[in-house]
Amino acid sequence: MEFIGRKKELSMLEGLYARDGPSTALVYGRRRIGKTFLLERFCEGKRHLFIRPVLASERINLEYLSEAVSEHVGSEMGPYANYRKFLSDLGEICRDEKTVVVIDEFPYLTGGCPELSSYLQHFIDGTLRRTESMLILCGSSISAMRSEFADSGTPLFGRFDRTIELTQMPLGECRLFHPNMSEIDCLRLYMTVGGVPKYHAEIRQDTYEDALMENYLGGGWMADEAGFLLASEFGNPRRHADVVSAVSGGAVRLKEISERVGMDPSNCQRVIHDLLGIGILGTVNPMMDAPKRPTYFIKDHMFAFDQDILKRRRTLVSSMDGGGAVRALDHHLRTYFGHRFELVCMDHLSRSRNVLEIGKWWRGGADGHAEIDIVATVLEDGLKYDVFGECKFRETPVGFAELDELDMKTQRFSKNANVRLMLFSASGFKDHLRGIADDAGVKLVGLDELFGRKAPDGLR
Q1: pLDDT exceeds cutoff 80 at 366
Q2: pTM of the model
Q3: CA nearest to 353, candidates 385, 322, 321
Q4: CATH number of this structure's domain 225-327, picked from the four choices 3.40.109.10, 1.25.40.10, 3.30.160.20, 1.10.10.10
Q5: Fold of 7-165
Q6: What is the DSSP letter of 106?
Q7: What share of the chain is helix, strand, coil (3-state, %, to 5)?
Q8: Is 25 helix (H, G, I), strand (E, B) or coil?
Q9: CATH topology for 346-450?
Q10: In whole angstroms, how far apart are CA 258 and each of 26, 278, 306?
Q11: pLDDT tens digits for 225-273?
């Protein structure tokens, strides 16, 4: 499989490996995010030992460890009776020659032997410190991996030279998985599955409709992926699934969510905290004078699609064949993409500029409701700018009407010295708007910018 993206993370690991003395790294991220693929690529051309535990008993994993070490040294080591013998042999390997040791899915080992973290602490502080070798721990359970380095009371706290969380890839990198797909279909797919590279690598259809029919509708493999991810992270995820469903259904504040799921607020807050921690939920950041009340939304595209389309429209999905279901879902998909496009634009702005703060603005009252899709404070060339943006995902190009609407909404902020207006469009812009945009101080962001083919214009 072609290696796409992850240049920054690969460079971090290479820099760590190149320095003198021993080194340690912790790599974590949700399932299918590309951790193992990254580490396999990093290990190419280096003396390495790649250990792959399984979700099984301590005895079975000790057998796997002995087989891995035996294969590496070229002689039968026999089944290990305990982890201390494994670490002793591992020390010999690390002392013999500079070696990269990768323990994949590390929580699989500590789940059956909690004291392994203490053994490994002594290995890092003692044996490894007297070598030139590199130890990398890897895992898919974000909460379990964070507990290994973020909690000062755990044995491995402070033992890692570098901690790398693999997050979802940006739109432009995911585009490389689909060379024959149109850009608008690739954008739709991104707003369906998110930036998880494994999903894009497995989806090989050349149109969004075919991808939806093959991988989601009629029992496709992606239809159950949201549930699998929750189960891999939380074991018994019923409460977490209920909270996600409640937020999708319009309960966006703690009180509303707890009442909807029948959970007391303190327990509900803990579940929300879990979901925020692994990026399934997000918080809406109120900007300017928007009401400062914490509200939640489904941040992860794959979970949003699972809730808003697969579950909420399950009757349509289950009662027709693939092509009929796609056609019947057309209106709902358009609405869904319109909402999710705002997050794509917000992510692009955050990645492409020095954003100090980003969120939304809204107000309500007797004269109606008003909302600005994106409000951000951006630092550029030593100056702070207030950026106000509107996002349009539709078939027709954006023109003066949309600019006038945004301008009217931002009149209350026009006294700010460095206000900049920004229009995001998936369908381009009308020629007359392009003709006056620069002179009017309006920044236009289309597919060229969103896919990373064109650098953003300066705000001056």
Answers
A1: no
A2: 0.93
A3: 385
A4: 1.10.10.10
A5: Rossmann fold (3.40.50)
A6: T
A7: 50, 15, 35
A8: strand
A9: Trna Endonuclease; Chain: A, domain 1 (3.40.1350)
A10: 35, 20, 21
A11: 999 999 988 888 999 999 999 999 999 999 999 999 999 999 999 999 9
